[in-house]
C-alpha cells in the first residue's frame, strides 16, 4: 500500500520545481519549460509502483518522475541550465533529463518516438530473462501516431514487460476517435483505465508491473486527468481534513523546498558551461580508443580555433 502523504509530498516538490522553471523560462533564463499540466499526482503514483531495477521512459512534461526516482533539484536545474553539472553535458533541451544510474531514459520531444525505444528495451529484458519492467508515459496525441501502434503491436507480439501509460484529459488535438485504452484490442494487449488519484494509479500500475514481471506481457493503461479543481490542492484539503497533514507541517515542508530550489538555482547559474569538446562527446561510436571520424575531427579543430580566437 502506498503512503498517500509521501505521494503528496513528492507531487508538491514537483509542482514547486515546475513553478520555478516556468518563471525562469518566462524570464528568458532557460530555453523553455514543458510544464506538467497539473498531472504530478498521477506521475508520482505510477513511478512509485516501480522498483529500482525498472526503467522509466518519460515525456518532457514528466519531471516529477525524475524526482521520485532520486534526482535532486540541483541535478535537474543543472540539466535545464546546461552547465558542466548536467549529466547530458548540454546535449539535451530542457525537459529531456535522463540518467542511466536512475534508469530514466531520454525523453523525446516527438510525442511518440520514445515508445518504440521503450518496447525495445522491454523486449531486451525478456530476452535476457531479467525481471526489469518498463513504464512508458505518453500523451493523448501520441496515441494517434504510428510509433504508438508499432510499439504496442510489437510489445504484444513478443510479450514485452512494459506498461504503456497514457494521461488523457480530452484537451489535446487532434483527439483520438476512440478511447485510448480501447485501441489495445487490435494488438491483443491488456487494457485498463482509471482516475488520476495517486493511490488508484499506484494500484493499477503495481498490478500491471506484477503481471509483466510474471511474463504476462504489456498493459495499456489510460489515466483520466481532471485538472479542475487543482488535484494537488484537492488532495491537500482532504489530508488536512482527516488529520494526516497539518498546516504548520505543510508550510514548513514547502518553505524548506523553496529554500532548496533557490540555492540550487543560484548554484546552477554559477557553474561554468561544459568544455567545448563536449560538443563531440557521445555523438559517434568510434574505434577502440573512441576516436572521431576525419570529418568530425576537422569540425572539432575548427571549433577549437574559433574559441581560441575569441578568447584572445
Task: Describe the structure using short key phrases.
312 residues; alpha/beta; Rossmann fold; 2 domains; 5-stranded parallel β-sheet; 10 helices; 5 strands; 47% helix
Q: Can you tell me about this structure?
A:
The protein is built from ten helices and five strands. The protein is of the alpha/beta class. It folds into two domains: 267 residues, Thiamin diphosphate (ThDP)-binding fold, Pyr/PP domains (Rossmann fold); 36 residues, no CATH class. Strands 1-2-3-5-4 form a five-stranded parallel sheet, with helices on both faces. α1 packs across α2. The longest helix is centred in the C-terminal third of the chain and has 24 residues. The chain is globular and about 65 Å long. It starts with a helix and ends with a helix. The relative contact order is 0.14.
Give a brief description.
This protein is of the alpha/beta class.
Secondary-structure map:
Elements: H1 4-26, H2 40-47, E1 55-57, H3 63-69, H4 73-81, H5 113-128, E2 134-139, H6 146-158, E3 162-168, E4 190-195, H7 198-213, E5 219-224, H8 231-242, H9 247-270, H10 294-311
Parallel strand pairs: 1-2, 2-3, 3-5, 4-5
> What is the tally of helical segments?
10
Mean pLDDT value: 93
CATH architecture of the largest domain: 3-Layer(aba) Sandwich
Order of helices and strands: HHEHHHEHEEHEHHH
Main sheet specs: 5 strands, parallel
Residue share in β-strands = 5-15%
The dominant shape is: globular
State the CATH topology of the largest domain. Rossmann fold
Overall helicity: 40-55%
Our measurement of the CA-to-CA distance between the termini, rounded to an integer number of angstroms, reads 62 Å
Backbone structural class: alpha/beta
Total domain modules: 2
Counting DSSP E segments of at least 2 residues, the number of strands comes to: 5
Q: In angstroms, what is the radius of gyration?
A: 21 Å
Q: What is the highest CATH level, the class of the largest domain?
A: Alpha Beta
User: What order do the strands of the largest sheet run in, or round the barrel if closed?
Assistant: 1-2-3-5-4
Amino acid at each position: 500500500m502506498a503512503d498517500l502523504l509521501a505521494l503528496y509530498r513528492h507531487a508538491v516538490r514537483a509542482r514547486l520545481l515546475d513553478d520555478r522553471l516556468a518563471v525562469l523560462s518566462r524570464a528568458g533564463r532557460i530555453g523553455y519549460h514543458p510544464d506538467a499540466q497539473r498531472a504530478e499526482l498521477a506521475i508520482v503514483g505510477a513511478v512509485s509502483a516501480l522498483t529500482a531495477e525498472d526503467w522509466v521512459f518519460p515525456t518532457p512534461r514528466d519531471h516529477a518522475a525524475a524526482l521520485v526516482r532520486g534526482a535532486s533539484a540541483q541535478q535537474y536545474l543543472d540539466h535545464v541550465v546546461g552547465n558542466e553539472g548536467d549529466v547530458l553535458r548540454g546535449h539535451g533541451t530542457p525537459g529531456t533529463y535522463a540518467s542511466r544510474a536512475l534508469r530514466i531514459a531520454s525523453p523525446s520531444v516527438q510525442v511518440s518516438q520514445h515508445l518504440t525505444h521503450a518496447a525495445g528495451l522491454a523486449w531486451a529484458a525478456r530476452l535476457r530473462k531479467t525481471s526489469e519492467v518498463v513504464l512508458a508515459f505518453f500523451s493523448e496525441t501520441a496515441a494517434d501516431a504510428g510509433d504508438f501502434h508499432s510499439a504496442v503491436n510489437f510489445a504484444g507480439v513478443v510479450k514485452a514487460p512494459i506498461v504503456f501509460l497514457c494521461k488523457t484529459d480530452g484537451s489535446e488535438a487532434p483527439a483520438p476517435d476512440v478511447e485510448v485504452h480501447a485501441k489495445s484490442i487490435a494488438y491483443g494487449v491488456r487494457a485498463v483505465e482509471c482516475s488520476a488519484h495517486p493511490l488508484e494509479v499506484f494500484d493499477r500500475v503495481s498490478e500491471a508491473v506484477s503481471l509483466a514481471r510474471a511474463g504476462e506481457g504489456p498493459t495499456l493503461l489510460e489515466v483520466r486527468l481532471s485538472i479542475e479543481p487543482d488535484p494537488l490542492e484537492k488532495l491537500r484539503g482532504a489530508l488536512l481534513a482527516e488529520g494526516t497533514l497539518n498546516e504548520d507541517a505543510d508550510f514548513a515542508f514547502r518553505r524548506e523546498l523553496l529554500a532548496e530550489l533557490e540555492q540550487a538555482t543560484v548554484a546552477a547559474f554559477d557553474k561554468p558551461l561544459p568544455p567545448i569538446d563536449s560538443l563531440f562527446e557521445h555523438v559517434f561510436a568510434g574505434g577502440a580508443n573512441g576516436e572521431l571520424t576525419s570529418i568530425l575531427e576537422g569540425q572539432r579543430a575548427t571549433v577549437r580555433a574559433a574559441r581560441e580566437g575569441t578568447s584572445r
